[in-house]
């Protein structure tokens, strides 16, 4: 099951409530866009969902969580680190297996950066780094995607390619997006967050960009 039904979601910082109490039920197959202005609580909500569903999901955090000193290959491989034995991961660190090399390379081809496979991640541009985090999430092959602004550093055509891939490869997704047009195009449900609460929850086919802009 890639859906979830969470209740009692709350988060506070310095005694100030920034999320909830909030409930969110996402059915298998739903592609949810979390929208709302900066500071509304989208990232915090994604973190709360991830804490609850954890291993069942592929996460693309806003800060990407990459290991700069390692090549692209190893950062992508980390998407399945918890599925491999210690010896397999240790061998992979020094001499990756051919089938893993091929699989990661194929993902990078789809993301338009296969020539970077063995480059240190620190040497990449912001958009390339973002695609490494996306490749890591795809490589994990969890049925549920949790992604926080996964296309913020990408050019328009690349962002379209990435959103199409995420839609195709994950059964269910919750993606925080600032781009309202992309949210309507690639997600079938829009959840608007305002001051840590759900202020809008509607299927995309019943919304226009102007309906969502009232949240900003
Ligand atoms: N580690 C933290 N310490 C203190 N306050 C925090 C922390 N993380 C988030 N906040 C506060 O919680 C609120 C929600 O932040 P959050 O990052 O979830 O918003 P957001 O909707 O994702 O914003 P953005 O679109 O800018 O990423 C903000 O007021 C923010 O200042």
Automatic annotation (TrEMBL):
It is found in: Cell inner membrane. It is a peripheral membrane protein. InterPro entries: AAA+_ATPase, ABC_transporter-like_ATP-bd, ABC_transporter-like_CS, MetN_ABC_transporter-like, P-loop_NTPase. This is ABC-type phosphate/phosphonate transport system, ATPase component. Residues 4-216 form the ABC transporter domain. One of its GO terms (molecular function) is ATP binding. Pfam families: ABC_tran. Signal peptide: none annotated. Gene3D superfamilies: P-loop containing nucleotide triphosphate hydrolases. One of its GO terms (cellular component) is plasma membrane. Keywords: ATP-binding, Cell inner membrane, Cell membrane, Hydrolase, Membrane, Nucleotide-binding, Translocase, Transport. Its EC number is 3.6.3.28.
């Amino acid at each position: 099951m890639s859906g979830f039904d969470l209740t009692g979601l709350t988060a506070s910082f310095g005694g100030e409530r920034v999320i909830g109490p909030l409930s969110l039920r996402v059915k298998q197959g739903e592609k949810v866009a979390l929208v709302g202005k900066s500071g509304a609580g989208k990232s915090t909500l994604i973190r709360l969902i991830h804490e609850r569903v954890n291993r069942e999901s592929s996460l693309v955090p806003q800060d990407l969580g990459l290991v700069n000193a390692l090549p692209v290959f190893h950062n992508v491989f980390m998407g399945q680190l918890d599925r491999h034995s210690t010896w397999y991961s240790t061998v992979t660190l020094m001499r990756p297996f051919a089938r893993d090399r091929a699989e990661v390379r194929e993902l990078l081809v789809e993301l338009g950066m296969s020539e970077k496979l063995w480059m240190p991640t620190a040497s990449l541009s912001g958009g390339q780094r973002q695609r490494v985090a996306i490749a890591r999430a795809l490589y994990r092959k969890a049925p549920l995607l949790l992604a926080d602004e996964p296309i913020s550093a990408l050019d328009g055509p690349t962002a379209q390619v990435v959103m199409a891939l995420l839609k195709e490869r994950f059964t269910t997704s919750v993606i925080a997006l600032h781009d309202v047009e992309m949210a309507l195009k690639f997600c079938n449900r829009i959840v608007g967050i305002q001051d840590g609460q759900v202020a809008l929850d509607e299927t995309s086919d019943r919304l226009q960009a102007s309906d969502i802009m009232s949240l900003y």
